[in-house]
Amino acid sequence: MDFFARQAQVRTSTHLLVGLFALAIVAIVVAVDVLVLLVFGWHWTADPVGYRHRLLVFSTLGTLALICGCALFRIQTLSEGGSAVAEGVGGIPVPPDVDDAQLKQLRNVVEEVAIASGTPVPDIYVMPQEAGINAFAAGYSPSDAAICVTQGCLDHLTRDELQGVIAHEFSHVLNGDMRLNIRLMGLLFGIMALSVIGRQFAWFDASATWSESERQLSRKAFSWMAGLALIVIGSIGYFFGRLIQSAVARERESLADASAVQFTRQTAGIAGALKKIAVIPEGSLLRVANRHEVAHMMFGEVDAFNSWFATHPPLMQRIRTLEPWFRAQELEKLKQTLTPPPPEDHTDDVQPEEKKELPPLEWPGAAVVAAPAIVDASVAAAAATPVATAPQQGAFQHASATHQSIPASLIRAARQPEPALALSLALAVSAHEDVRPAQQRLIADALGDDVWSAVEALVLDEQSLTPSQRMPLVALSLPALKQLAPGRLETLRGTLDAVVNVDPRVELDEYCLVRLLRMYLREAAKPNSARAEGQKKLPACRDSVALVCAVVAVYGSDDDAGARRAWQAAMNEAFPGGIFTWQTLPVEWQVQFDRALDDLDGLLPVAKEIVIQSLLSAIRADGVVTSTEKELLRVVCASLHCPVPQQPETRAA
């Protein structure tokens, strides 16, 4: 599947639907203006035209202020990110060290998908009272995301099916759906505020007593009718808002299904989950009271909606998009044989005490997996991607092997707040013994001697890691780091920079780790400040593209001539027909590289695709892909908030 092209297609239709949402709000404002004119515009004044104009201005601004104010209030209540949404629907956090086999399996699946997709591990929640099969992802950015699954997922799904559901939710994270979902929740809340105010008007003035004068009764009746009109206007606005919200959700769900196929490299998992939704009595339904507020974020329908309000395509349509040969009659057979599966005895669900070597992976030639002719184009493209860029063994198998190979002591440290802080610093400590004393003083002065002792205890284990293991540890540690107090997080960020800058010989792996940590911690500290979709075009960032491609070319090549060839190939991919002059990479390139990545993050999504393809051209220029190149590519993709292309590792850095 062409992630960026499919994303651009869905984004175009989403923009249209969001535009309709804005038109619906305009229509509500006009309706309220008409109501105000009918109620108050008949009063006689010396300047009736001016009076009505002022009345309309007051009404328009007041209505917009009410809708926008309530929407902003609701969005602000969700400003803590995905965790606030998950807890708002009854989600309970999954602790890092659990004995329950189902929860342990869930945590390992989520961590594997995060490693495979190049995103930080989200907060993990379970809705224990919900027997239906459902899940959702929420948050403003990958760094503050939360994934919440129902108990029904744990009770009914196999490991592969659970993996398919989680991959579907991760695609919402990578497709940028979460910020849009939170804003739609806020706008609907703002529209509903009109109905709430109308009910207050009608309730307060509905009661009349015989002792009241005719004038008082008339005023109460008038007020009651105005309240009733506001209820009608608010309800109609909410009706159309829900219609548009549902249409947006259906577009995004189709993309998420296709993306899940791309992540997992198989359709059986997500298709199996959809089939079980179709046959178990609870389906995907939720019982929580505010389920409609999050309906557009869920894996399946939360209620028995009609087709207008459905937030997802029909189940059979989703299943047959994935498996065109499937027939509805087969659901009855599945229903007869279905029993809740026990948690599977998967080797990666229990961390080994000793470090294991990463098993070798074989990368066959570019054989193509045939896709049925009638399958949905996006899913067919995902299934037909050459295995040269999507390994036959799959990114998940590689992620699982990486997950298993990390020492258990480091996994435990990554899952607890204070040990995760020490682990982050241990990853940044230099391998050069001559700078260790200065780094020790910095850490001890900023955070205390006890923290340095914890860092020192982790350094030996950490230095035995390969780059393919170090980067996932950063992703694994983020949920624990987010539990630290804001002041302590800020101290950690400053200390990381100081520790790295002690040594003028900044190693590439140290830079990559600190860059990722800084970015994750910054976005996690202020979730709603994460950058929205960029608007820049590629020519505006030509210098930044040249620098980023130069860094990848230099660190991925054995000599200067090879670096120049790789850089030239990348620039030709980004700017066909252009004339480029090679410039030697500056000695202290890290600050410029940081600025370049921040600049490129402001690009349009289609332009980001060109940048990623250019980097792949540089990486492939010498016919091999090193672990160093993969590490840099992961950092660039994370900085651009893009999925990591799947690349085989053919020789060591």
UniProtKB/TrEMBL annotation:
Pfam family, one: Peptidase_M48
InterPro entries: HtpX_protease, Peptidase_M48
GO biological process, one term: proteolysis
GO terms assigned for molecular function: metal ion binding; metalloendopeptidase activity
Domain Peptidase M48: 103-324
Keywords: Cell membrane, Hydrolase, Membrane, Metal-binding, Metalloprotease, Protease, Transmembrane, Transmembrane helix, Zinc
Disordered: region residues: 334-356
Cofactor: Zn(2+)
Transmembrane segments annotated in the record for this chain: 16-43, 55-73, 184-202, 222-241
Residue stretches of biased makeup (Basic and acidic residues): 343-356
PANTHER family named among the record's database cross-references: PROTEASE HTPX, PROTEASE HTPX HOMOLOG
Protein name: Peptidase M48
